[in-house]
Structure formats: C-alpha cells, structure tokens
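Hi everyone, sorry if this is the wrong subforum. Our group has a chain we'd like a structural model of before ordering constructs, and none of us has done structure prediction before. Sequence below.
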Amino acid sequence: MARRAGVWLWRWRRNPLRRTSDVVEAWLLLVAWVLAVAGGVLAGVLTAGAMHQAAERVRAESHPVPAVVTQEATRGAVRPVGGALGWGTVRWTDANGSAHTGRTRVPVSATPGARVTVWTNGQGTLVPSPASPADIAFQTTLGGLWAGSTTVGVVIGGAKLARTRLDRRRFAQWDEEWARVDTPWGWKTG
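Answer:
Right subforum, don't worry. Here is the predicted structure as tokens:
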C-alpha cells in the first residue's frame, strides 16, 4: 500500500527526473479537484436554493379564484391526467370587487355558465397554476444537479486543457534534449 501511494505522489517528492512542469501539473490537479468538488457542491446548492425561492415566490403570489366560463373552450389542446383542456374565456371578480375577463385553459367539457377555478397574481392577471411542492422539489433537485455537474465539467475540462498544454511543452523539451544527446553520439534517431 505504501508503494502504491508513492507511485501516486511521485510529483511531490524530490526526484532528479522531476521537472518544473511535473510540479505545476501536480498543483494543477490538486487545485482542479478541490475546485471541482467544492465548486460543484456550491453551485448545485446555490442553484437549487435560488430555484426553490423563485418557485415559492410564484406560489405565494398566485391565488385561486372562482370564475365562470363565458365561451366554450376550443378543442384539441392539452390532455392532462384530469381530462382534455382547451382555451376558453372566463369571467372572475378579484378581491377588491373588480370584474375581469380573460382566456385560460379550461376543461373542454365546460359549457358557458360552468364554474371553474383560475389562478391570478397580485394584480388580478391570469397566471398558470403554480407547481406543486413535489414538482418544485423535483425541479430544484434537477437544477442543482445540472449546475453542479456543469461546474465540475468546466473545471475538469479546463484542467485537462492545461495538462494538454503542459504535455506539449514537455514533448518539445524532450525533442530538444534528444537533439542534444544524439549529436555527440554522431547519429540521429529520427
């Protein structure tokens, strides 16, 4: 086990074959992994928190209001679990007694005069129904995972790009050294 750790940590030990680029690569990898883990977790948590706050704000600003269908819904729209929905015209009264009319999704089976529930914001404008707590949890979890994964990918991709540049530099140095070694021997290897 100690030998295996020595193989992994060879860039950190004193070694006549170790180059400056090897030390730079070791630090680059260490910093990249720390940034990837910490940055990924931080980005995921912050994104999920921001998404959750936004969804809860929308949920708090949306209010269910009873309305009356004034025009039949057009057919062929959405078919959710509860049945087909279409665009219909409804009339409702807001909290201060003002009457409003607007178009929203209503059941296709609703005829003029049928009572439905619509959602409005603080200004009395029709809005889509807010997401359920389960939907909010699902969306914020996916958003956090996406943000964290993206952060990790960007950091690791950047480290890989930096390592590629270090490798090119090392190959160029090796070519120069081989050219110096080959010339005194009187022959070229390539």
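For your construct planning: The radius of gyration is 32 Å. Residues 133-185 form the longest helix (53 residues).
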